[in-house]
Amino acid sequence: MRLTNDAHGRGRTALRRCVGAAVAGIMAAMMMTGPMASAQASPADAAPAGTVADAGGNKHFMVYYRAWRDVTMKGVNTSLPDDNWMSMYDIPYGIDVVNVFSYVPPGQEDLAQPFYDKLKAEYAPYLHSRGIRLVRGIGYDSVTNGFRRYVAERGGSVQDATDADYEAFADHLVATYMTEVGLDGLDIDMETYPSAADIAISDRVITALSTRIGPKSGDPEHTMLLYDTNGSEMGPFKDVADCFDYVAYQQYGSDSSRTADAAADYEQYIPSSRFVPGLAFPEEQDHNRWFDAAEPYESSNIHDVASYSFDHRLGGMFLYALDRDGRTYDQDDLNHIKPSNLLWTKTAIAQSSGVTLEQSKEAANHFLDRMERTKAVPGEVRQAVAAATNLYEANKAVLGKDWDQGYSNTYDPALELQLKGIDIAGLQSSIDRADALIADAHTPADARMILRMARDAAVAGLADRLYTEDQVAQWSDTLAKAIAVVPVDQPTPDPSDNPGAVDPAPTPDPKPEPKPEVKPEVKPETKPVPTGNSAASGLSDGSVSGTTVAANAGKVAARLSETGASIAAAAAACAVLLFAAIGVVALRRR
User: Which residues cross the membrane (predicted)?
Assistant: First the structure.
């Protein structure tokens, strides 16, 4: 059918508006990923608006994050030549407290500073957006002898110290160890047998700290004060027990019988819901032997203590040396830094919070379902999930025993359980319909291109690490508009009539690591931020120039105008579709 002059005019108007949208989208994409990105990226980029807040509940799960093994630390507190692999963006969901554990040898302060700069500017805001609190450990000696030095430097003595001196020292600790690096609390590490004089000092320092941070402060929801110990010495604890959020009990290399004994010791001062036992992974070049994470899983200390913590309603649990998850005391592991899929940590999070085997399998299958359009799921992976008899086996079916030994290195069961709450069935159905229309020879070329853009945007979004309800709604709406572009007189094909005819998005390289640090993609609440490297990155049929996209969008606008749609509606439809195309996210390597 020939268009009237009026229809041509309306089509040209819509086309100009679509071109404007394309240019704006391309500029946005360049700003996000091109040369300008490095000059204009801000710390806010590390705090995705669409980040899923960890559910957490009343259970704590804390990990010790060894700062000298962060990717920004190079040559600090190490003699190993291997590069660090981990960043704080890799911290799994289900964790609500991160203990920033750091030792910087004298003379290496400049090498360590980039980490602390990034911690305050980027890591902390990102983790805060997930509802995670960050604490920093200080030794008990830093409290007692630290106060002695503090008053001596000011010409005073402990004997003459006033409440004001203790208040000032508390301010000094908070400023030095917390606020200067953007943290939320302190963890007092007590692994000694203090004298009565030491206890007299620590009681007053802790009391002063408790008015600033922790459960007795003015901001108990966003600050923390922890008592961290490996024994049951009650002298330095009993008179200040109410100042602490919980006791983190180091029982490395021990099973739940030690947990039960220690919990009973502390129960005279705190409820069991404030007692949090902890285990450890093997540190590199360490002479200790903590066999907490050793197969078979159900005989391991991690399974035993995590189960005991949940069954006896303890406060949760913690793990030391997150980056060493999965390592052993074999010489190769002891003398090298290696990446980890964090299998044991992710399983302990689930075990200690009461996740059932059925829920674990549902999470695994949900992940595989949303990934399979971009990366084929081998039948043996599905079979391993189905055959799993415990949480570890269900997670291992997807992650593999170690890095690059499974379907995905980054599968996060706790996150997946939250994503299951977002209904994607309708969007999946629309993707199937779009696939059938794309495969149908009767679908006009311009409509097929628009369909593919919208379809690929939805598929890429679903295959990303996370997505929001608003994003799913937008992808569904965009795809519906794209489907509506197909002429109404064309019979709508049944996807089942075209088995094997799906035009999938490109399959990413499944083995991208050992990986550099990857900042989480910004995830807006209402629309995806363009992060592609071109106006059509991620399209199944290769790149399409902005001119081609705009020209074809103009044809679509003309067709919409011909059917009686308003100019604004036609332009808006094109703008939405073009933005979807430009905003296709490059699939993250799994």
Answer: 567-587
